[in-house]
C-alpha cells in the first residue's frame, strides 16, 4: 500500500484497463462481496476527495446474493464461502487484491454452474454538486460541460463519457421532466425498455443534469 498509487490514479488506470480490454463499452458489471465497497467505501472516499467516480461503480452484483441462491441461505464471510464452494482460499484474507482474486474465482465457479447474474444493488444518488456528477450525455465528448471552478484533482475530462445501460442490459433512454416544478426541464436516463404502454421494465434511473 505504501508504494501504491492514489485513488484517482487507480480509478484512471482501471478505466484505461477496461478500455484496453474492450470491456468499457460493453454491458459489464462490477462484482463485489457485500455492498460495502460500492455503497459506502468508494462512494464516500470519492466524495471526500472530490474524485469523479466512473458511473459503472453505481450498480454492482453483490456475489452474496447469487451465492445464497446456489448454496442455500447460508450466512458466511468470503473466505468461508470460497471454501464452502470447494475452492482453496488463496492469499491473505482482507488483503484487497487477494479478496478480489478469490471473489473472481467464486464468480467463475458460479458462472460455470450456469448461474444467470443480474445487478443486485445500485446507488440512486443524485449529486447536488455538479462538480461530482458524471455527465453521461452522448455527444458531450467534444463539448465538455462547463465547470466554473475546477479543482486540480478532478478528472472529469479524462474519463470517456458513456451512454449508460439500464439494469435490463440495454442502452438507457434519455428523458426530460415535463411536470411543472423545481425539476422541470431536468434530463435523466431511465430504463431502455420503457414504453408508454408498459412503463419501465427496471428501476434504473440517473439524473443527467443535477
Ligand atoms: Zn431497463
How is this structure best described in words?
The longest helix has 17 residues. The chain has a domain of 120 residues: 2-Layer Sandwich (Nucleotidyltransferase, domain 5). The chain is α+β, with helices and mostly antiparallel strands and 210 residues long. About 18% of the residues have low confidence. Helix content is 28%, strand content 10%. 16% of the residues are buried. Helix 2 links the parallel strand 1 and strand 2. Strands 1-2-3 form a three-stranded mixed beta sheet. Bound molecules: zinc ion. Zinc ion (ZN) binds next to loops.
Q: TL;DR of this structure?
A:
The chain is 28% helix and 10% strand.
Q: How far apart are the first and last residues' alpha carbons, in Å?
A: 35 Å
Fourth CATH level, the homologous superfamily of the domain at 7-126? Ribonuclease H-like superfamily/Ribonuclease H
Uncertain residue segments = 125-161
**Bound small-molecule species:** zinc ion
Morphology: globular
The CATH topology of the domain at 7-126, please? Answer: Nucleotidyltransferase, domain 5
Radius of gyration: 19 Å
Helix content: 25-40%
Oligomer: single chain
CATH class of the domain at 7-126: Alpha Beta
Number of strands: 6
Number of helices: 5
CATH architecture type of the domain at 7-126:
2-Layer Sandwich
Report the structural category. alpha+beta
The major sheet is characterized as:
3 strands, mixed
Mean pLDDT across all amino acids: 79
In terms of DSSP E residues, the strand content is: 5-15%
Strand order of the largest sheet: 1-2-3
Helix-strand string: HEHEHHHEEEE
Protein name: Exonuclease, RNase T/DNA polymerase III
Domain GRF-type: 166-210
GO molecular function, one term: 3'-5'-RNA exonuclease activity
Keywords: Exonuclease, Hydrolase, Metal-binding, Nuclease, Zinc, Zinc-finger
Amino acid at each position: 500500500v505504501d508504494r501504491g498509487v492514489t485513488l484517482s490514479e487507480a480509478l484512471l488506470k482501471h478505466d484505461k484497463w477496461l478500455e484496453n480490454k474492450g470491456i468499457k463499452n460493453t454491458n459489464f458489471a462490477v462484482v463485489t462481496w457485500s455492498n460495502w465497497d460500492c455503497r459506502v467505501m468508494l462512494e464516500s472516499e470519492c466524495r471526500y476527495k472530490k474524485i469523479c467516480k466512473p458511473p459503472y461503480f453505481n450498480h454492482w452484483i453483490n456475489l452474496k446474493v447469487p451465492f445464497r441462491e446456489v448454496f442455500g441461505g447460508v450466512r458466511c464471510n468470503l473466505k468461508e464461502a470460497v471454501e464452502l464452494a470447494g475452492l482453496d482460499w488463496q492469499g491473505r484474507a482482507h488483503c484487497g487484491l487477494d479478496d478480489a482474486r478469490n471473489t473472481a474465482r467464486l464468480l467463475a465457479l458460479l458462472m460455470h454452474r450456469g448461474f444467470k447474474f443480474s445487478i443486485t444493488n445500485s446507488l440512486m444518488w443524485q449529486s447536488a454538486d455538479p462538480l461530482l456528477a458524471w455527465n453521461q450525455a452522448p455527444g458531450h465528448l467534444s463539448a465538455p460541460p462547463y465547470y466554473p471552478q475546477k479543482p486540480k484533482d478532478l478528472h472529469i475530462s479524462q474519463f470517456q463519457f458513456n451512454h449508460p445501460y439500464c439494469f435490463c442490459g440495454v442502452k438507457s433512454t434519455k428523458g426530460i421532466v415535463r411536470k411543472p416544478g423545481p425539476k422541470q426541464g431536468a434530463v435523466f436516463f431511465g430504463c431502455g425498455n420503457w414504453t408508454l404502454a408498459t412503463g419501465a421494465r427496471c428501476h434504473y434511473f440517473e439524473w443527467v443534469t443535477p
